Amino acid sequence: MTDMDQQASSQSISKMIGQVLERGETALLVTKVSGPGTPGAKLLILEHRAPIGSLGDPELDLIVATQAAQLLGSRDETRMVSASEFAPQLPSARETLLLFERLQPPPRLVICGAGHVGASLAKLAAFAGYQTTLIDDRADFLKRDRFPEEQIELVVAGDWGSAVHDAVGNGRGVSVAVVTRGHNEDEQCMQAVVRANPDYVGLIGSKRRTSIVIDRLREAGASDEQLKNIHAPIGLDIGAVSPEEVALSIMAEIIAERRGGSGGSLSAWRRKST
User: Fold this and answer.
1) How many helices (H) and strands (E) does the chain have?
2) What is the pairing mode between strands 230-231 and 200-203?
3) Which candidate, 241, 118, 264, 125, places its Cα nearest to that of 186?
4) Are 201 and 227 in contact (CB under 8 A)?
5) b vs e for 108-131, b when ≥16 Cβ sit within 10 Å of the residue's Cβ?
6) Dihedral sign computed on CA atoms, order 263, 121, 124, 258
7) Which tops the pLDDT comparison, 246 or 265?
8) Whose CB has fewer CB within 10 Å in the chain, the N or C terminal residue?
9) Residue 229, Cα to own-chain centre: how many angstroms?
10) How far is C-alpha 218 from the chain's CA centre?
11) Where are the beta strands (DSSP E) in the chain?
12) Pick the CATH number of 108-259 from 3.40.50.150, 3.40.190.10, 3.40.1000.10, 3.40.50.720
């Protein structure tokens, strides 16, 4: 690949990365760090389209592309890999070092309900780096002076279903916490949420309250797979009492789901070994 070809490829890749992130999609950018050919050569692997660019070796491009599903399914954001790990048959495998970077939009959290828990959760999510949308049908609960954080979008819902549908979009990279004040509001939000299949769905309330909502969703046609993905009651068991503590338990579960964590104690191994 000539310098001019590589520059054109890099421009094409940069443009496509912007489009992928704007659409809320996920992609994998592979950069050759060392090995034969041009260091810095890039291959952009998309979920539903042909790859863009080249690592300078058509056979290596093909092998890397076939690994895409596994790598995209991984929760690692970056990984440095020797080509010998997955393509030992290549003559230059031992010399070739590749950097894999997972490209995805910043995480988003949609919160239905701006009561004490919802308000605390919005502030905590913004602090944790989430683009947050806080929805309620009570305008007085969504005053900007209560939420000065730029990362928090405030939406007054004329209709819960429409507001939630618009906020969740295609569901990619989106977590949803339904923490409204009652059954009816919960059900309206959840009807919109389950159809979008976001990355995470959580519903606040007792076992009885959440079971009533889930049963109604089933009667309305939600599939078993969609219902199985609902975290209800929402949050990890940390013995939370105050709204701030409940928000912390919810945020911890959302992060664990996104990062692939167990939600258990990091020191549990030590107690088991003694």
Assistant:
1) 10, 11
2) parallel
3) 118
4) no
5) bbbbbbbbebbbbbbbbbbeeebb
6) positive
7) 246
8) C
9) 14
10) 25
11) 27-34, 42-46, 52-53, 78-82, 97-103, 108-112, 131-136, 152-156, 174-178, 200-203, 230-231
12) 3.40.50.720
What is the Cα–Cα distance from 164 to 111, expressed in whole angstroms? 9
CA distance 110 to 256: 17
Share of the chain above pLDDT 90, in %: 60
CA distance 129 to 119: 16
Pairing of strands 152-156, 230-231: unpaired
pLDDT tens figures, 218-255: 999 999 999 999 999 999 999 999 999 999 999 999 99
Strand, helix or coil at 171? coil
Instruction: Look at residue 162 and give its three-state secondary structure.
Output: helix
In whole angstroms, what is the distance from residue 10 CA to residue 40 CA?
10
pLDDT digits (tens, 9 = 90+) for 157-173: 999 999 999 999 988 88
Alpha-carbon gap, residue 227 to 217, rounded angstroms: 8
What interhelical angle do 160-168 and 183-196 show, nearest 10? 30
Domain boundaries, given as residue ranges, for the chain = 3-103, 108-259
Cβ–Cβ under 8 Å, residues 112 and 213: no
How many CB atoms lie under 10 A from the CB of residue 81?
17
Both tokens of 235, joined, read: 């949050």
pTM: 0.79
> What sign does the dihedral 182-187-192-197 (CA atoms) show?
positive
